[in-house]
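Narrative of activities, Objective 1.

The group set out to show that a structural description can be obtained from nothing but a protein's sequence at a throughput compatible with the screening campaign. Below is one input-output pair from the validation batch, recorded exactly as produced.
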Amino acid sequence: MIRFLFQRALMMILRLLFSALVLLALIECGFVIFGGGDRHVWEVSLSRTAPVELGGGSWFELLLERSVNSGIVLLFAFGGGLLVGYSWGILGGRLRKFRGALVLAAPWNLLSCVPAFWFVVVTAIFSFFQWQRPGFANDLVVETGPDLLRWWNAAVVALPLLGLAASWQLQAVADTVEREAARPFVKALFLAGYRDEDIFYSNILKRSRPKMINLFDRVLPAILGGLLIAEWAFHYEGIGSLLVDSVQAGSYAGIFLCGMWMSLLIGMTSLLREWTSQVWRQEQ
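Output recorded for this entry:
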């Protein structure tokens, strides 16, 4: 197991290095070749202090604060998507004779079909005219007691992302279970006299678990992409809005750090998925 983790961690580091090179190339092409800028990526030193237009202060403190804010959004969006996707997806596979997956996925598909960008923009415009504030930029500050307002703001930002994650995860899990249920051994067990419930939980679901484990991190890149739109439209102070603000301010350091933060998160989640899958194989 230690050797396996070492190999996967080494692969993750190589992927991060490749991601860093690709990100630097994209910054160079976007700002210098296509944007006509006069600063190259190799000429910019990584200062410890963030630009004033990004809030100033230390990069470490800024990234730490924004990471916590985005982490709460991801907790609702990614965590909620996994919870709904796996539970409802398994239930949809259980009710496959009644097209259970299509019925259960319908409300999440409807929510995910509403473009997240327009949803958050309309909400942000409404909040500006209703409460005279753009998004959460000038919101109240909780000075005493638990900061429930912070969690509420994160939940609102995570809502369109939750619809995307739950819809995709539910469909993927249900499809995995239904493909396993279509295998010849299921019909043989029916003919042998086994009950449908025993066949599903003791055979179909058990044989589907390795494939379902490999699905839990597939929707994360799409969620992080939506995070840019949702946080920026709501003026929510997270990594996504920091990346957009860094692009507008021409801060190479901000773009690079935010991009690597997302790459590291995807890499760590992929490493967790591979480790979980390996543990499951060994237990079997």
